[in-house]
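WARN  no MSA supplied for this record, continuing single-sequence
INFO  ligand: adenosine-5'-triphosphate
INFO  echoing inputs
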Amino acid sequence: MTVSLFEKKTFSPDETVLCGKKLAEMVDKQGLPGFICLSGDLGTGKTEFTRGIASWFSPASKVRSPSFTIVNEYRRGTRPVFHFDVYRIDGDDDLVSSGFFDYPEEGVFVVEWAEKIASSLPPDRIEVTISRDGDENSRLIKANLITRKAGISE
Ligand SMILES: Nc1ncnc2c1ncn2[C@@H]1O[C@H](COP(=O)(O)OP(=O)(O)OP(=O)(O)O)[C@@H](O)[C@H]1O
Ligand SMILES: [Mg+2]
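INFO  complex generated
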């Protein structure tokens, strides 16, 4: 089942960072799945949003886009964050060699362009979509929980 977590409009990169931090806090305090899929066109703010997630779990880390490295690791806080950008992933072999399946599940996974590896995503996850919305600095951010559980305890 799919449960809407929030919909938020942001008007600056900093607001998007804050929105990512808010989601991380929800994951932490509500025990939501630590696997966060980010979708949205080029340059909509997936990396900015990740900056916010990492600021909650690994505040001492500097977030950089992993477009060329596929994955960056942030381990300077309470929980390691594995930040993937699978835009350039081409097939399962690439994903395997990126180490995607070898990371410990106690980590928080954040995956930019997750829709490109749809068949490899876990059944319980959070899906965030970011879209441009009006003027240059406006974004609409929607977060949904995808879960196999029929009910969610508050
Ligand atoms: N409200 C906003 N939220 C997020 N980013 C914004 C916003 N307004 C403007 N921006 C700008 O949009 C860009 C977002 O870049 P970012 O690298 O986060 O995008 P991305 O979705 O990760 O791109 P890519 O698909 O290339 O990985 C930045 O240059 C940022 O300054
Ligand atoms: Mg990015």
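The first strand starts at residue 2 and ends at 10.
INFO  checksum written, moving to next record
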